[in-house]
Amino acid sequence: MAVSNTSSISLSASDRLIAGAIALLIGAFLVFGAGLANSATLHDTAHDTRHSYGFPCH
Amino acid sequence: MIVRYLLAALVAGLFSGVLMTAAQEARVVPLILHAEEFEGGDEEAPAADGAEQGASHEHSSLSAVDALAEFASFLSPVGVAHAHDGEGEEGGIMFGMSRFSGTLLANLVTGAGFGLLLAGVSLVTGNPITVANGALWGAAGWLAVHMLPAIGLPPELPGFPAAELGDRQVWWVLTVLLSAAGLYLIFLKPGIVAKLVGIVLIAAPQVYGAPQPTDISSNVPAVLGAEFAVAALATTLFFWIVLGLSLGFANEKIAKAA
Question: How many domains does chain A have?
Fold first, then answer.
């Protein structure tokens, strides 16, 4: 509960940015791997998911 | 403290991924399996028997007879990998999992990924996600990742004609990023200028246009494609609303429970 510029995020501004950046990086990595990576094994495993989420596929 | 916010996003994402898998199995996967009967060219002759293929194990989720056996194989983490017509020669499903297990795993990874991305946007922009506004955050995520890109690249069934994969992926990623930035400016930035710039950002990739195939003929019936597009958008909307709400809940229960 250090410095907080919003009522409901209880992080200091710099910690908030660090947490957000880490979340964005890991999240983008996971979504890329499941949805976009050009690997036959990843594609076949995630095939139905890729179609369902409307990722460009095939 | 930082770890707690990441944990909250992971929990919400994994939870939403599980529910999404159920929604997909109910509404989307049967259409994918049906379309795969028509995939792979003329020699497969869809003809009249296309709808009544109870004997073929590959399409057994459509028949009530094999449903039990199929269900039993779902429960086993290691099962027979269902071959995918015309591909998979060098691919195959990871760890020899069943098709359903692969889809569940992919949904868990995707759910965790989108959960982290949603939490990341919230943290970086300093706009907390709560139970009260979670559904709206989820709806905005659905607009940015699914609805707006679908204007140019509708969700495709297997066997649908499509432009070069790399071109479509680049257009899709750029459209998601521009749409997300535009929605942020429209919803979270005060001032008429921000909202106008937001609309321009959202419209720009649509005006530019998505890569389209030169030949749009397909063996897959148009009715299947229409049903699939609606089912895909409806299930992803469900996923994102669940994700937004559960992320709001997890933020209040996990992240702030220090």
Answer: 1
> Is position A25 within any domain?
yes
CB contact under 8 A, A56 and B169: yes
ipTM for the predicted complex comes to 0.87
Q: Is B120 on the interface with A (CB under 8 A)?
A: yes
In chain B, which among 63-82 make CB contacts under 8 A with chain A? Answer: none
Q: What is the pLDDT of residues B110-154, one digit of tens each?
A: 999 999 999 999 999 999 999 999 999 999 999 999 999 999 999
Q: Which residues does B29 contact at the CB level (< 8 Å), separation at least 6?
A: A48, A52, B61, B103
Domain contains A31? yes
With CB atoms and an 8 Å threshold, state whether B232 touches A24. no
Domain assignment present for B190: no
Is B169 near chain A, with CB under 8 Å?
yes
The structural domain count of chain B equals: 1
Q: Which of B116, B126, B156 sits opposite A30 (nearest CB)?
A: B116
- B80's torsion region: left (phi>0), alpha (psi -120 to 50) or beta? beta
Whether residue A41 contacts residue B92, with contact meaning beta carbons closer than 8 Å, is answered with yes
DSSP chain A: --S-SSSS--S-HHHHHHHHHHHHHHHHHHHIIIII---HHHHHHTHHHHHHTT----
Task: Report CB contact under 8 Å: B106, A57.
Answer: no
Q: What is the mean pLDDT of chain B?
A: 84
Domain that holds residue A26: 13-52
Within a domain: A58: no
Residue B200: inside a domain, yes or no? no
